[in-house]
Amino acid sequence: MFVNSSQQLAEKKLLLLYIFDKFDMPITHSQTTDFILKNDLMNYFMLQQFLAELKDAEFITEEAKDNLQYFSITEKGKNTLKYFADRIPQSSINRINGILGTAKEELKKSSEIKADYIKKNDTEYLVTLKVIENQQQIFSMELNVSSNKQAKLICDNWRKKAQNTYGKIINLLIN
């Protein structure tokens, strides 16, 4: 996992560009980190350094949305990848392609569930929960709660249980 040469450094950066290109959708910083570390593609510190360098070189962008930071590849990054793709070892490409399908589906599912909260005042938080299908919002609910702890708990539980909870709400309203 240690990188010894400038060629290996370049390969790792190109591999990151390849991953962002193949995901073909913005992915959060934590999703990126989880994917890279879970699949033992590089260590945490190397990943953070490369993400910063790719961002500084404008090969990827970082955009804030729903209190999360999302990465995506830029046109400059795509052009660079196209030009230097042959420098990524075929074994690495095959490995990434093999694990990408499942990971991409998991990310699509998670991107369809939104949970966020804001502090309205010292004793009130507004929690917003959403379900999005085919880029269309199909469910939205706002709740006022009295503590930061409750707001975080509701958001965490919504992210874990949204499909089941959404189904139960619909059934309660229909029956």
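Second entry:
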Amino acid sequence: MAPPISRSRRVWLAAAALVAGLAPWAMQPRGAPPGEPIGLFTTLPILWNEAPDIAAQLNDPAPPHWARAELTARGAIMPLDALAGTGARAPLDGLRRLVIAQPRPLSPDENVALDAWVRGGGRLLLLADPALTQHSDFAITDPRRPQAVALLSPILTRWGLELTFDESQPFGARTQPGPEAALPYNLAGRWRIAGPPAGGGQCRALADALVVICTVGAGRVVAVADAAVLEPIDPAGERRTALAWLLDALARDR
């Protein structure tokens, strides 16, 4: 059983969200066309930069993560700290699009909820890195540090996928040509399609198996076996271009 999100991390997420003004309506840029909200479930510092405490967060001079603007241009961001709940309204209710980027391990209830949501017509962009290379100032034991290794075997198995990793590959930033954009990667995994998703669907691999696109029931999953595309430094804009392609692929029907 995957451990529930720690109290300290939950408190940090809630406080940082308040400081950064992360209510969904606050995340919609002025002048942007209104769109359906996009759920975001991640341990990466996308909606706020890393800071030792809330005071430092308030006075952070660094610009926001570039991916925040790319997401909000497509719809208001709905930050999530859980995928399942006990209340009358589940976290995924009302969402049709979801980005999961290097998440913490999912609980059994979250695996069930996510699978049901996708099969019911949800569209998921998943970035699962088997060896995260993004720098963090937080110690390995700090709950605010991004998840080092994606641990998602139960839901991946349910969808007929296996995340493989070649430990002999060298460290270093590279790009993998894709159908519409080059994908930055570093110590990436590769997808193995073990079979069709349980209950119906199919998957196909792209970009040398760095990406898979799956139909799962009535839903769609675009999965990337690395998270380097979301590293915060992007002077040439190649990461933003790659993320735009992945989000566009999520919106298509084939």
